């Protein structure tokens, strides 16, 4: 069948997948980087040490200062230090926080980024940046922040704790879900979204069973790559808007927030996104995909209620106000009351449902 008319912009992505960390040295050389600064969170020191060993003398410093949601104060400080080091490129090592800080630096300095991702958030495949200033997370798109090269080595994620593995995998699935109903979706994006979600849904239970199983880590990373590429070329909708407000204003953990909210937005948008429902029924199996995803989540080690990660009922009104005051594109019109009901369900871990007319029980 002839697809509906579409346009698609391919991003210049250079990806080296599953060949270990050795190709990183050639990527650094290829980009002419002589004075690289490694950007990471304080956590994954062994991975940073391995990268430093591989890249050798071209590393002039390590800024292990990344934290969630990219606070502007951290960006200011790191721009100063990278200038003092006379850096000519960044190697972002870790998850979305490390890559996010490198992007914020690149936005100011114009220096190239090479990404070595070790979570499944997918930020390495997007030109999307985010910076939090005074409790408001601003996001934007700029080709200057798109990593020039990405080196995926599944072995680097074997020490990623399973709860973070699961949550960041769900974060990636959220990119796929929203790509399937984005206003600028296309058959190419939908292929990547379906395959990315499939790979993650298959791999995450196996990662939980054996975090050191390389094929499972590899399949999860492959899914993350595809889902990140979907986010990189499509417009974000209600789900990402909700998570940006919950993360930026209430400092909730990014990946867990995505994971908990996703089945609720999926159910809410389902009546207005038939193609998405068909695609995800194929991915998650028979039945309603929001219920299948919610059941998958309940079988994995992750919280399923926003109350469990520090959100409270008194904050729902502020989120509903912000989400509807500057809305993202969405297939279904969104009212403040819709957001309230959706968040009340997510708050207590109640089952997702497409209708927001039904009363929400106060307990799961
Ligand atoms: P994260 O980067 O904050 O990492 C989570 C935790 O895992 C950290 O404590 C980190 O130190 C640890 N960790 C990472 N790799 C590890 C490893 N190999 N071994 C052991 N520990 C390891 O989490 P995340 O979910 O990847 O990223 C969240 C951030 O990414 C948010 O700020 C979000 O807004 C951003 N994000 C941006 C995009 C985009 O396209 N711009 C996409 C997705 C996420």
Provide the descriptors you would attach to this structure in a database record:
single chain, 364 residues, alpha/beta, Rossmann fold, Dehydroquinate synthase-like, alpha domain, 2 domains, six-stranded parallel β-sheet, two-stranded antiparallel ribbon, 13 helices, 8 strands, 50% helix, binds nicotinamide-adenine-dinucleotide, Maleylacetate reductase, alcohol dehydrogenase (NAD+) activity, plasmid, maleylacetate reductase activity
Task: Summarize the structure in words.
The protein is α/β, with parallel strands linked by helices and 364 residues long. The protein folds into two domains: 14-157, Rossmann fold; 162-348, Dehydroquinate synthase-like - alpha domain (Dehydroquinate synthase-like, alpha domain), CATH 1.20.1090.10. The protein contains 13 helices and eight strands. The chain has helices at residues 23-30, 45-55, 72-84, 96-109, 162-181, 187-209, 214-233, 238-250, 254-269, 274-284, 289-298, 316-325, 336-348, and strands at residues 15-17, 36-39, 59-63, 89-94, 113-117, 128-133, 136-141, 149-152. It is globular, with a radius of gyration of 20 Å. The termini are far apart. Residues 41, 43-44, 47, 68-70, 94-98, 100, 118-119, 121-123, 126, 128, 130, 156-157, 159-160, 164, 168, 171, 231, 254-255 line the site of nicotinamide-adenine-dinucleotide (NAD).
